[in-house]
């Protein structure tokens, strides 16, 4: 299928073709941010192009010329699937944009912010999003949720799963038949059951669970994200020796990096922030100190700017330092609502 | 023993009623178990009264919407308001299962909580009334001595919180802690914003919950109780005018931003109106 059939602006078509994207398949494997960069268009438009492409290729695959071969896949498709497999979307395209498309499998990502900024919401959202079936552009995998604070609420996870299911159907325009086919899988309860939940109440338990993950992930290859909410709570209590704390934290981070790489899982660590006051202003830094700050591949700070939530890349070996607004809605993590729109709704 | 993950579908979802259907609806059913809930507000905002009402709701028999459960009320600001407890209680709630203890230092609180562990594991399997609610009124009183060593204070806060959370989880307790507020001075030294509101105010003053950013990390949910300014709004109920008060969700993992008006009457603390949930942002 050629790009010319896509129902998109002709200017975009020209840009696609001149950048070498001549077939639908060639677009599918590309991340939105890369496409935006190559075509020099806003990220939003790149996302739109990819969405339209996915929709078209699906429609063609169903009714069109490939009917005989339905069920078989080309190597190209498999390769592009594999590339897609590496990312778990946050639910906000702007947020995904600064992360290079989403949370990366095989890496340790740390996110921190003040209480109420949405850390647990992000954790639950990613535990849900990792489960979106492969045929719908997700990973079709399971999540491990290590809850050290007791803030995981099943009722909230249910809401987010429900909204995720609705959005998946809506955005990709599925037929009634398809919806019926996957009715069983696309149930909030099914999503909840695929969140493997560990509640731990002390730092010794936390270390024990993390050490146990090596064996557990070996037996559960379908897990693609490990979320620890939060990494810091039990390490901010009285430690007799701070040196001992540093040793324990170092060992833990080494273990987490190893897990991420060995099993190609995304590791998401949620952290607290502390405020450093200097001359009338303050700066937010992720908790656990300087040594710990070297432990994660990517570090993201979540903060308030006026009435909007923002995320900023604090440290990453390959992502440019950037920030993006996001919001926490009844449905979960989404793009920030434009200011004028919000005023109207009020 | 191998560690086994749990299925979130099977986690307990029961909640503890606040003793008022409007407030219950506002909070998505009530106070969650296995969870630390903070009630923050100025003196006379209604924190202690609401705690007493919840204690009575836990004690009430199941036939009248209660839990037939015992509670432990740890008071750090004596005297314990016994008179008010009596005036709030109806015959439905027996008072002999409300244990009251006082604690005057963080050390005393630790010792007490360790005893509670023992107590709870002993009665765990007995058919006797189980303790399902632990109230700490207030947490701020124990920690507001200006500790010179801020690092030490914050690690103490985390230790207390970890203990409370562990008990909440192990014995499926609802834990409620109250907190004071401090005035916010607009001199540019304001700390980071915490939660859904840029500013919180009570009796016309700008305030914020005490014990800072560290403690805010220690609770699962923060509710803010406030009074309108003295010359401010009043609510008319059955011909009586009452001071309008407000309950706000500052942060909670399962609730959107929202506020609910309430009044305090002789009979108790009651939410006002059917529009229990007034979302101020599109949810």
UniProtKB/TrEMBL annotation, chain A:
Subcellular location as annotated: Nucleus
PROSITE patterns in alphabetical order: RECA_2
Record key words, sorted: ATP-binding, DNA damage, DNA recombination, DNA repair, DNA-binding, Nucleotide-binding, Nucleus
A GO term for molecular function: crossover junction DNA endonuclease activity
An annotated GO cellular component: Rad51B-Rad51C-Rad51D-XRCC2 complex
SUPFAM superfamilies: P-loop containing nucleoside triphosphate hydrolases (SSF52540)
Transport as UniProt keyword: no
Record-linked Gene3D superfamilies: P-loop containing nucleotide triphosphate hydrolases
UniProt xrefs under InterPro entries: DNA_recomb/repair_RecA-like, HR_Repair_Mediator, P-loop_NTPase, Rad51_C, RecA_ATP-bd
One Gene Ontology term from the biological process aspect of the record: reciprocal meiotic recombination
Domain RecA family profile as annotated: residue spans: 84-273
Family matches, as Pfam families: Rad51
Homology family: Belongs to the RecA family. RAD51 subfamily.
Role description: Involved in the homologous recombination repair (HRR) pathway of double-stranded DNA breaks arising during DNA replication or induced by DNA-damaging agents.
PANTHER family found in the cross-reference section: DNA REPAIR PROTEIN RAD51 HOMOLOG 3, DNA REPAIR PROTEIN RAD51 HOMOLOG 3 RAD51C
Protein name in the entry: DNA repair protein RAD51 homolog 3
From TrEMBL, chain B:
Keywords: ATP-binding, DNA damage, DNA repair, Nucleotide-binding, Nucleus
Location in or out of the cell: Nucleus
CDD domains in UniProt: XRCC3
Pfam families, sorted: Rad51
GO molecular function list: ATP binding; ATP-dependent DNA damage sensor activity; four-way junction DNA binding
InterPro entries in the record: DNA_recomb/repair_RecA-like (IPR016467), P-loop_NTPase (IPR027417), Rad51_C (IPR013632), RecA_ATP-bd (IPR020588), XRCC3-like_C (IPR047348)
Protein name: RecA family profile 1 domain-containing protein
